[in-house]
């Protein structure tokens, strides 16, 4: 701090005793710019270190299970799944509210406005499915932070002497240095805390067994009413939660899961299916006539140990599923 203020004091002395010659004026301005640049570089390096520490800490936290706290992590689980009940005409750039909320961990989703607001910084995945009317198409988009802020500042310039200009620059420089020095000290303290927290998280980390599966269906054919669809061609089954003989996934641990299924219809046929949790509907998907069409459903849902999720036929017994590895079912644990 003493060295910092001594630099400013010397600068002020040089400025007040400066002759008006252009060469000396340019020299002082160059020195001022050099001082500002050097301090800015130091601050940016510290800021980059701060960003890397936060990223590394978030990565460690996202992978760990704290010892003795495996049922409920100290971090807040964030995830939501909502559906829309009402059909109707959409206005220009109308926000679509999905008012039927199944899960809303972390309370980030607002069904009244249809917005998800991130409660913490991090990497997120979002998915949406829309189904058009029989005679109409529909065009939608997913957006982030729609809104723009424009600031216009008008000002007038005036002729000032070179010495007055330098004094004004010194005042600005003093303010900039004070501001940067305050931010620098705050970042140093924050980085120290982040390093301690990162070391603590690494020391206490216990990586859990990965839980997730991905399976496809090989045989095509006619589906019976409410027939469970077995996806018997299993590619991955970490944690052994998926039973290819029954077509059911059984949660080995409680937590927030994501599931996805894709169905593919035969020529001249449509197919209508649903995903269920313990027999209760989570969402529907329709691959319509004239066939060779696909439909995908993504669901985020909290499961307790022993809860089951599967895909079953929802239409009449005359519908046909085109499998041949086109239709699939997958899921994975997001967070405990």
TrEMBL record:
Gene3D superfamilies xrefs: 2.60.120.40
Annotated compartments: Secreted
Keyword Zinc-finger: no
Ranges where the C1q domain occurs: 206-336
UniProt-listed SUPFAM superfamilies: TNF-like (SSF49842)
Coiled-coil parts of chain: 29-63, 170-211
Top-level division of the source organism's lineage: Eukaryota
Keywords: Coiled coil, Secreted, Signal
Keyword set includes 4Fe-4S: no
Database matches in Pfam families: C1q
GO cellular component: extracellular region
Signal sequence range: 1-17
InterPro entries (alphabetical): C1q_dom, Cerebellin_Synaptic_Org, Tumour_necrosis_fac-like_dom
Name of protein: C1q domain-containing protein
Organism of origin: Mytilus galloprovincialis
Lineage of the species this protein comes from: Eukaryota, Metazoa, Spiralia, Lophotrochozoa, Mollusca
